[in-house]
Amino acid sequence: MKIRFIWEFARFYGITALRRATIYSIAIMALPLTLLFVFYIISKGALLPYAIAGGMIAIVAGNALTIASDAAFFRLELRMQDLLVATQIGQTEYMLGMALGDLIFSLPGIAVYLVLGFAFHIFTAYSLALTAVILLFLALSTAALAFTLSSFVAHVRNVWGITTILSIGLTTLPPIFYPYTLLPNYVLWIFAISPATLAAMLAQGAYGLSPVSVNAAIALVAETVLLFAASLKFARWREL
Amino acid sequence: MIEIRGIRKTYPDGTEALRGVSHRFSEHVTCILGRNGAGKTTLIRILSTQLLPTSGAAVVNGYDVVSQPGRVRGIISSIPQEAKPSGIATPMEHCMMYLSARGMGLSEAERESRRALKALDLTEVMDKPADELSGGTKRKLFVAMALASRAEIIFLDEPTTGLDPISRLEVWSAIKKLKSQVILTTHYMEEAKVLSDEVVLVEGGRIITHGTVAQLLAPFKGKVRIEGDGGRYRLGGLSFSYVDKAKAKRFVGKNVTIKPVDLEDIFVTRGIKVED
Ligand SMILES: Nc1ncnc2c1ncn2[C@@H]1O[C@H](COP(=O)(O)OP(=O)(O)OP(=O)(O)O)[C@@H](O)[C@H]1O
Ligand SMILES: [Mg+2]
């Protein structure tokens, strides 16, 4: 495992984007903040804690999902994957570099939500610590999912569509901005295909908004391991 | 040493890009020439462990590219033909990222990056985001990355496409100074003449001839090319023949062009013995 490469790639991919393509960092915040505003108005403030807890999740998952497009673009258009395949790093380092880069890219968004969370007094030391752990698992599992899916994009012309579809299906639809208890059980577990759903269930539990779900914790860890294994098995590195 | 035996590549869509190529590459600089679609990039990608061959064997310094890719990757640097930089990262950032993938330490990577960027006159733009660089400068950046790698074996797929004449000279001079074995593809005959110890001509997925520039030009010794005379060689709608310089006089005044023979003529005759 080339740890230094993971860091260098995160810099190359995440920090440079933060410095020079700041607009995307704002763009990725736009939807969660809009939803937060709408929920605040409609629910007269009642759903605000959900929107704050969910916003961080949406940002981290949304950024990790851009790997589906970015990795495909890097492979097909920039030929970056070819460049790196012929070095000593493997797909795990490459994927982790992207995951870390996107996590760094999420930091301004997370900061905005931290400010909101403190302003509205929804955090405790316990919930904050748990949030950090949840976000880490979320970033890893979503990155693995996105990277694996990126392998199946065969043409540059299809590159940008994939993240849009994924982010609606995996971060907007699931119970991230609203109580997961509103959903019938079977629908909830369909949405649990998205790591963001599990992360939101855990966060809602941690903030005392919904019942604590031990199953969600087990499922998130299991899903992270499975998605990681799937990326090793199904994501293409060397071309056939 | 790089040796290939019976390499075939059929892409998943059925395209036969390589139809059984065998060769032992020269120890220093090899230029692979060939028309568009001949199979040059396919061959380089197989040797660089980026693409699996359909059958056949390729051995790079004793390591098999199919079964020991990790070993091969430790000693090579390979620049794809169509590599493009990430627009938001600078040349220096590209070099640092690439060299860390090759396992080079931080301070060495910084030193080698600066040196390579300087050799190609990129010092001034090394901290500029790549989307502000010109097309040729972007290309040079990738050559610089390969130079900075100090790999034992360097593959360059069309390193000088789109480069201005001065930049091309810079790249040539940098390649000549390398101690590494270099395998490059090019469409510039001048480049092949200046750089190569060996030229390999690929056509239709096969190596049809190879040798030093002098060897490849030997069949044309003392001859000139007569273009447009209805001769026996044909390419792109033009007919050619090769005649002894002494006999060229009889063509003067006719509606033909008389030209000195050059490396591109091996495309016309495909390395076959030239006849009048
Ligand atoms: N990924 C691919 N899938 C299917 N066919 C391919 C693929 N890549 C290349 N080919 C085909 O394989 C053949 C050889 O292509 P290759 O890129 O090796 O040629 P080349 O000699 O490098 O050409 P050029 O000088 O234009 O770069 C061509 O017919 C090309 O269309
Ligand atoms: Mg090519």
Largest interface: A-B, 31 and 38 residues
CATH architecture of the largest domain in chain B: 3-Layer(aba) Sandwich
**Within the largest sheet of chain B, what's the order of strands?**
6-7-8-3-9-10
Number of helices of chain A: 10
Assign the CATH topology of the largest domain in chain B.
Rossmann fold
**Approximate strand percentage of chain A:** under 5%
The CATH class of the largest domain in chain B turns out to be Alpha Beta
> Ends of chain A: how far apart?
24 Å
- Global outline of chain A: globular
- Helical/strand content category of chain B: alpha/beta
Tell me briefly what this model is.
The complex is a heterodimer of chains A (240) and B (276). By secondary structure, chain A is mainly alpha-helical. Chain A has helices at residues 3-20, 22-42, 48-76, 80-85, 91-119, 125-150, 159-172, 185-191, 195-206, 214-234.
